[in-house]
Write a structure and sequence with these properties.
Order of helices and strands: HHHHHHHHHEEEEEEEEEEHEEEEHEEHEE
Oligomer: single chain
Number of strands: 18
Length: 417
């Protein structure tokens, strides 16, 4: 009997344990973890042979933003880019999986896919065994070799997982997007700073609208929690909150908390200023201090408590003495921007007028075919609904469609009689 080398002995003793280990996890409550590890292994090895097209996508900051879920609205653009080109589709799918793995998002692999890959590896190992030693080998010795193959597969998979967990992979241009552990920890938050001369429109994940004034900053999660929607403001902004009583909307402006269920209001809260001001345009708003002894209770639940404001009411919060002073106002024009005074009520109004009002109120560009839609008009009361809802209603009336590309709204419609 031929002697066994040290690696063969190690492989033989480890094989039983690792095969049992793999079988256990295959039927336990963690099959997705195994699939994730195998996916990481497969993609990292394939990165060594990626095409130039694949590399270009990984170095494209716009692609990375879309693939990581930061810019879901860009999907039509990338599908149009791929078109019917199978090479582009293949490169795009592979690059997207790499980005999702690196930012911690799971890649969906079915059990059938994983089992097929394992079966293929065992089949190749069996053919190798028969080719090298003939079919006269007894079954238990082949089992040793097959178990060894499984052990190697397991070691490679878990070794790759360890390598992935302990090494920062720099595939993307660091000047554009750096996929580091620090980014993974903060990837669920998004911050917008308006450094332009004009007000800037921001669409929130729940469909709410924000008009952010110059020099202001808004921070919000890429996806709101199930129980409440929370944003942080430094500066001036007008809010149109999508109505959802089961999911309260909270704005943190320094030590002042503004809580609503669905309404429109303005906030002025620059860092360093002695006061924070809130003025309500429509609906009800609750305000309270973060240092209030009942702050936790006031924050939770879907009831408006604390100091409640009605339309055309203002509250001034003193940062230093932590006081709240409520007063009535003739008009809700705290920030002196058009949207605070617009009612969005239309009676047989031409679409050119409606679209011009939207542009002025939200600081967006509305692009449409004026020649085609010149005879179209609208009769509707759009009120304090967020911009997304206004666009849906308008397009339903006109039998048109729309898409939003940053601060540009493209409307495609038919002629009206």
């Amino acid at each position: 009997m031929a002697s066994l080398s040290v690696p063969q002995l190690v492989s033989r003793h480890l094989s039983y344990f690792l095969v049992l280990f793999l079988i256990f996890f295959s039927f336990s409550e963690y099959p997705s973890s195994i699939r994730q590890i195998l996916a990481i292994q497969r993609l990292i090895f394939s990165m060594n042979n990626r095409t130039d097209l694949h590399q270009e996508l990984l170095e494209n900051s716009d692609f990375v933003s879309w693939a990581s879920g930061e810019a879901p609205g860009d999907e039509p653009l990338w599908l149009a880019w791929a078109g019917s080109d199978s090479d582009r589709h293949q490169a795009m799918d592979k690059a997207r999986q790499v980005v999702q793995l690196l930012v911690g998002k799971p890649v969906v692999l079915t059990d059938e896919h994983v089992n097929a890959k394992i079966s293929e590896a065992i089949r190749v190992a069996r053919q190798q065994e028969m080719f090298e030693h003939g079919t006269r080998r007894v079954w238990w010795r082949s089992a040793h070799r097959l178990a060894s193959v499984a052990a190697v597969l397991a070691l490679v998979a878990f070794g790759t997982y360890w390598w992935y967990q302990n090494r920062t992979v720099g595939l993307i241009d660091p000047a554009a997007t750096v996929l580091t552990q620090n980014r993974q920890q903060k990837s669920d938050m998004h911050q917008v700073v308006n450094e332009t001369a004009e007000s800037r429109y921001i669409g929130l994940p729940d469909g709410s609208s924000v008009v952010l004034k110059r020099g202001s900053r808004l921070t919000f999660p890429r996806q709101f929690a199930d129980h409440r929607r929370e944003v942080h403001l430094s500066g001036e902004a007008f809010f149109e909150v999508a109505k959802n009583p089961a999911q309260p909307f909270l704005v943190y402006a320094g030590d002042l908390v503004t809580k609503v269920l669905g309404t429109s209001f303005s906030i002025k809260a620059f860092t360093g200023q002695p006061n924070v001001e809130v003025v309500v345009k429509t609906g009800k708003v609750s305000v309270f201090s973060k240092t209030d002894k009942n702050a936790e209770k006031l924050t939770t639940g879907n009831q408006l408590a604390g100091l409640v404001l009605l339309p055309n009411q203002r509250v001034t919060f003193g940062r230093e003495d932590v006081t709240l002073n409520r007063s009535d106002v003739k008009a809700p024009t705290l920030l002196n921007i058009p949207i605070e005074s617009q009612t969005f009520e239309y009676e047989s109004s031409p679409v050119s007028e409606v679209f011009a009002n939207l542009e002025k109120a939200y600081g967006v560009d509305v692009v449409y075919n004026q020649a085609v839609m010149t005879k179209c008009s609208i009769t509707a009361t759009l009120g304090d609904e967020p911009l997304a809802n206004k666009l849906k209603w308008i397009c339903n009336i006109l039998e048109a469609t729309y898409e939003v590309n940053q601060n540009q709204i493209i409307i495609t419609g038919k002629p009206c009689q």
